[in-house]
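Continuing the batch. This is chain 6 of the set; chains 1 through 5 are on the previous pages. Same settings as before, nothing changed between runs. Recording input and output for traceability.
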Amino acid sequence: MKLHFFKTGEGFPVLILHGLFGLSDNWMTISKSFAAEGFAIYGIDLRNHGRSPHSDEMNYPLMAEDILEFMNDHDLAKCDLIGHSMGGKTAMFFAAAHPDRIRKLIVVDIAPRAYPPHHDSIIAVLESFRTEDLASRKEAEGFLRAGLQDEATIQFLLKNLYWNEQNKLAWRFNLNGIKNHISETGAPLPNENSIQVPTLFIRGENSGYINSQDESDILKRFSNARIVTVAGAGHWVHAEKPAEFLRVAGEFLKN
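Output for chain 6:
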């Protein structure tokens, strides 16, 4: 699959993978900061997200192979890989399958274990209205606010709303494709995988995605890993504490 992307900067390539319902644009500010440090940043839209193609198939092995195809298409022999949440799990699967193609790996607020489905409320709200029937983004915001309590999630979803060629509002993500494979987004990294790639796990202090048991499991399965906790951050570490995220991630990539 030919994934949509943006590129900024020149230097050693760094690929950034967003999370569920996200898109590469979420990482634009962070990407520019990394580019200023001498990296070539590739912000990628994963399948069924952003401007990348929609598909009836969606799982981590497939998404990892999408990244391999992307690297081959752009003549990238090796890269640093950053992934948040679903993007972080994709990055882990890629590192397990193609360790020779990665120099360093950064996983943001996700563990290799299985996660039960927990996006049902978001999907239900998104399915409760048809974007093409709306006259403004404000109407969409009203529907989301009526069904969702978290303001950060509401604003995060609204970044996916755009006016299509028919001058109708639409989501950039493939809602049906995501819904049909939502259980796949919680799939674990297979137990037989032992990863030696230098890896940094960055977790948010106020997020429950990586707990103390996960820390033990991570250090067993990633032989060259360390875990850093960003104080005061939730699941969207890079958006909530960008300066701290850039410092921690930048030091790891440069050293």
